[in-house]
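no rush on this but wanted to send it before i forget. theres a chain ive been looking at and ive put its sequence and its fold in token form underneath. i want to understand how the tokens follow from the sequence so walk me through it. thanks a lot i owe you, the record is right below:
>
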Amino acid sequence: MLYLPSPDCLNKRDMKKILSVVILLSGILTSCISYTDVQLRNVAFRDFSTTDNKMRATFDLEIDNPNGYPIRLSKPKFRVFVGDLELKDWSVPKKIKLRKRAVETYPFYVEISAIEGLKILPRLLTGPEIRIEGTVKAGTFIFGRRIPLEIKERLY
């Protein structure tokens, strides 16, 4: 049971605090209800480069965020394949922040170590397909959910 003191024993400052908490809680709860899934619209391979004993494949992802608030993509759980070979030593960007109510293009990259690069070198000569499968957390503040992501793109 919720106990609220009688209005005659509260001063203006206490009433403002209670009103602020109620407004904050209602804003948080309504924003959770109105979540619309983020859509991956288009994927395009941009370039392939080597720097500091790393090989980097860069993609442009066109993503639609129809929500009225920004969403952060984080904590990716992916499997990366070049042709039929699964890469074990790779990394991706930690976070991507999507602007509210916008369809925009965001850079996304996959970096692999030089050792993994030597393993896939013969496959790079035959016009391979890069495949990224898995999930990424989409959310704002403490609320979020995992969304599936699948990218298939030929390098050239």
The beta strands are 39-51, 54-65, 71-82, 85-87, 90-91, 95-98, 102-113, 129-140, 143-154. Residues 12-33 form the longest helix (22 residues). The mean pLDDT is 79.
